[in-house]
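Q: Could you fold this chain for me?
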Amino acid sequence: MTSRLLAFALIGLVLLVFVAGIVMATSTHSGEQFAVDGFQRRSFSYYEMFGIRLSATDYFNNTGNLELTLAKKKWITATGQKPKDDQWITIEHTTGGRTFVSDVQILIDYLEMTSPQGAIDLAAWSTNNPGYAAIMWPEVQTAAQGNMFILVPDIIHHMLDLSQDSRNKWHRDKKAPKIEDLSKEELASFIAQQTKTGTDSLYPFLQDLYLEAAKAAQDANDKKRAKFCYEQVLRFSPGSAEIQAELDKFPAELTAEPAKEEAPDETKSSEDESEK
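A: Sure. Below is the predicted structure, expressed as structure tokens.
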């Protein structure tokens, strides 16, 4: 009797170890991806066991309302086309209790800032400062195109500070009429004033910011980022022989590419994008 119980116990232990091994080898992959075009976002999930895919990758559209507004107002470039596989950048990827997070999260944190969630409501700010928004958001997108997400906070906070600086003659205090109460002519004048003030302030700031970033990237031997940053400096100071000389040191084919984890294999998955 004892030997029989011992045998059953051993069999149970073997089965337990076997099942535990299967459970441990079966991993759930989930995360979120970002495309610079239109600031689109999508979440993904799939299962695999022993490195073998058990399910197709499910995708769901996560693009937020602020991103949709930016595209609608043409403050960022949005082709309206579905991004190609290599245009999706991994924001985060969780599997086996471990989470990979890329620099894209820096931008996402700002895009998700609304009044209930953070100190800055960028949606409301953009609506109330259309001239500044029309200058700021294209530059945020340009930084994203060059994988310079680390510069996003500097760009955004420079414009936020400008809009709140009482020394700025176009500063809108609490006594100013609401943007929706302005006449068509007043609104056009207000936007033009903000656009000029924003351009005069942001562009010199970006020139210095990109120059500093270019030198830092060179020191880190990050040639792609360095080249991109020098290209932006030249954009703000066209004809600069010094900057052109720096650019001439780089191979022509160098382009900045976002560092990203291997994306889910599209050849093994079906896509199901549901609207938000």
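A (continued): Residues 25-102 form one domain.
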